[in-house]
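Researcher: I'm preparing a figure for a lab meeting and need a structural model of a single chain. I don't have an experimental structure, so a prediction will have to do for now. The sequence is pasted below. Please return the structure as tokens so I can convert it later.
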Amino acid sequence: MWLEKPSFKIAKEVSIKQENTYNLKTTIYLVLLIVAFSCKNVIKNDSTAKNTGVPEHKKHPILPNKISVQLLNNNGEKLKLENVLCHLNIYIDSLSYYTYSFIPTDSNGIVNLTKEQLIQNTELKHYYDKTIPLDQSPVKFDFMIMDTNLINGMITGMKNYLSVDIESIKLGLKQRGLNDSQIALQITTIKEKIESDKKLLEILEHNQNAKLDYSNGPKKITDFWNSESEYFYELK
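Model: Understood. Here is the structure written out token by token.
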């Protein structure tokens, strides 16, 4: 499930204070990793709990075969603007939902998502089973344009901690009591995360969310999927 992770807040605070010493950046990076893996474990535990319930109910939720969203300007005309980053919430119940973030529009200002993409890019991949009967209950979702300030805060924070060198990270782990074998294991994971975050940073830096007109408020769709069919929406 998507949460406004504490890491975003940390990154924003770092941006405001503009403290760029190695010790501070190393601490930030380690905290971000701890938060990331902690959240990951919470999500997995949650999805495991949901997974335990699936065999009991013998049903899987409604998901569209395809969803398409066309951006419109305030005059109702098609807005052909690529790399506008979007976010999707798929509700499990009235309070809980799975999320899919950083979804870019194409050159025509359209987002096209297949059922497989919805499954593989959310926690649904841990328990969705199409071989069991379909739950006919409508599934609520939110589709929205990501907040520009949030994206800018993430860019600033990621640039800060991605500049930390591996030796500083090793030193930080050692100071926290890890032995050499534990550090070696963590460094492998950290390097993978660094490479993943570099790719995400590139996506974030090319976003064009700020070019949209928000004078009429946040751009968001809230609706329900009632069948496993194709859905087309316009987002003004």
